[in-house]
Amino acid sequence: xxxxxxxxxxxxxxxxxxxxxxxxxxxxxxxxxxxxxxxxxxxxxxxxxxxxxxxxxxxxxxxxxxxxxxxxxxxxxxxxxxxxxxxxxxxxxxxxxxxxxxxxxxxxxxxxxxxxxxxxxxxxxxxxxxxxxxxxxxxxxxxxxxxxxxxxxxxxxxxxxxxxxxxxxxxxxxxxxxxxxxxxxxxxxxxxxxxxxxxxxxxxxxxxxxxxxxxxxxxxxxxxxxxxxxxxxxxxxxxxxxxxxxxxxxxxxxxxxxxxxxxxxxxxxxxxxxxxxxxxxxxxxxxxxxxxxxxxxxxxxxxxxxxxxxxxxxxxxxxxxxxxxxxxxxxxxxxxxxxxxxxxxxxxxxxxxxxxxxxxxxxxxxxxxxxxxxxxxxxxxxxxxxxxxxxxxxxxxxxxxxxxxxxxxxxxxxxxxxxxxxxxxxxxxxxxxxxxxxxxxxxxxxxxxxxxxxxxxxxxxxxxxxxxxxxxxxxxxxxxxxxxxxxxxxxxxxxxxxxxxxxxxxxxxxxxxxxxxxxxxxxxxxxxxxxxxxxxxxxxxxxxxxxxxxxxxxxxxxxxxxxxxxxxxxxxxxxxxxxxxxxxxxxxxxxxxxxxxxxxxxxxxxxxxxxxxxxxxxxxxxxxxxxxxxxxxxxxxxxxxxxxxxxxxxxxxxxxxxxxxxxxxxxxxxxxxxxxxxxxxxxxxxxxxxxxxxxxxxxxxxxxxxxxxxxxxxxxxxxxxxxxxxxxxxxxxxxxxxxxxxxxxxxxxxxxxxxxxxxxxxxxxxxxxxxxxxxxxxxxxxxxxxx
Length: 787
Description:
Pfam families: RINT1_TIP1 (PF04437)
Structural class: mainly alpha
GO cellular component, one term: Dsl1/NZR complex
Radius of gyration: 55 Å
Number of helices: 31
Protein name: RAD50-interacting protein 1
């Protein structure tokens, strides 16, 4: 069969498989025709270049052709526009260059106009200054102070305005002009004020009756008020600095002295310069107290005039800030002293003895200023500020350090260092009599040092001087330790020497404890905490050891720290800076107390062997005695205890003596309980004798106040001597409670010992023995063991 027919058969077979009704020839033929038509369309679409789809897209191609044609036209138009743009840009550039030349000419013209305007303003300002100057000259010639002060006020305001400009020469000229006329007006007002002060006979160098002073003041009150008004109106421009005090002496908080105070001080300044400068005998460099005392005298002599006459007059000027006349007057006098000392400071620093004398006199003077009758504010500058100058303060600190350490060394070199300084002063209380010379002298040294730096104005300087105080406290404790350790032979803990050292430690520790709550040291603690924060913020935290007693102040940051603190409100906080130091003193106190206690207890143990070994189980019945006596073997121990306690009361402070006695009694009570009660059995006679010894011997020796401290032995004696019936009932109750306790927790004997006391023991006055101990004591009774 040919390939054609083979393919035809395969083609028809494929159609038959797709047709379900192959038995119907018409339907099969229709299917063949449909399939053939479909195949023809596929072949036509494949081989005919102009297919049906292509015909449908002919319209789209036509549209694209039209779009391309239009685009070409637009590109041609764009090219023409670009050519026109280039032509316009070239033309615009040429016009821009022309405009820049015109603008440059315009700016030059404007600059010239501004310079011309500035010159006109400059000349106008200069003309105004000259006009004011000419007007001031005329008004002063006519002695018209009201007009002169009014013109000067305008000149002052203009000077302040000129100060904000860049005209250097005009600023200098206006400032100099203002200063010139200020001095001229000041001279005129001073002359008038001097005449008024003569009328009231001020200053009062020679004492006058108060009624005369008041009468003179009342007569000339209106004239003085007028002159004061002139003085209060005359002020320098804000930008002009006063030159009345050197800049380096303008301490923190300094402000100019009011003009009328300067006028009041003129007579004092003249007298001060006459007596304390030049060739006068009163100008003795070795006697600063002469001019310091003179200043105090002037302040006190003029107190009534300043506070009762002049202050009410100044208060009437409501248009000026409040002025405290007395304080400003004192400030003016203090500046005289500061300038005087500063003029001699170089030679003073080179002579340590003279420098020390100056320090003492300045401190006395400063303390006198702060007393109630003068009442100079502590926050205002004083001579103490001069002592805080860096060079001066370093010298002062070095002198304080050298002198204090030398004095501390001399304290212990004295042959009477550990003897009482008040022993012969019967009016002193017993505890004060026991204070050693070294402790009293040392604390006097510390108090004197505190008085010296109490009024130091700058926190950094105060902290440095306080650090020296802390160092001395630390050194004093070490020296006391050395006194005990450097002896060639062992020291008897009960000796007066040993007790004196212990008293010194306790006394100084108690003083430190009191200082923690004093405002002075609380303020220092606040400064110390603030300084640690300040140092940390500046990246220089060197407070590594919290338990250190040392206080380090960085001098490079001191002034910055002072400025911050003086502008802040200071809080008072507990002085924890003493905690580590106080702990060292208390540790040494405890150590020495333990030495004494151990020594006494050891001695008592050695002397109590005969008493412990008494035949407690075979002693006669107390009914056989006419009267009972203390055991003869206990007498030596009792005498030793009595003598020891008496010596402690004589040699030690009361609170220390009481503490040692209590500890000795407690330890010896425990020792007797363990060695007698727990180791021996007691018949009726032994129990009665032990109770008698407790009541008439041990408890009497230690006085009524300490009778309750022989607790275990005393309560054991009560249990040993109680009636046998009561004892049997108590034993049964204790056994029952102990059995219940053992069922609850039988892990250890400790649980029984620490169990709560039964009410039966409390009713019998037994409060210090546990159930187990009470049961063990009762088991020591021979009359119960035989039952």
